[in-house]
# Entry
Amino acid sequence: MATEKHYSEMNENELRSEIGVLMEKARKAEQMGMISEYAVHQRKAVLVQSYLVDPATIKPGEIYRIEGDDGVFFQVDYLKGLFAWGYRLGGEKAIEALPLAMLKDVKSGK
# Structure
């Protein structure tokens, strides 16, 4: 039985390859109408993408756009691992965690 590497042990090329595999699985699941499986592979791909984000680029107190949720902004309170904890602006002040890869800089539009 082959042992699988943890994402934290993978290099950039291995992570990018894994993202490709997950996106392909998501595409196939979507084509087959398996919406739950599609969502699982999409979320997993976002988590793997978060390993490629430098946490130093996400600053507590700053506001970011949320990838895939147009017009919604997120204010970061603190970082813990691959997640930014904070609040969505304009909604309830409920604290939540988002994977780092979901946050895009408002200023640069990235």
Summary: The chain has a mean pLDDT of 91. The longest helix spans residues 12-31. The first strand starts at residue 63 and ends at 66.
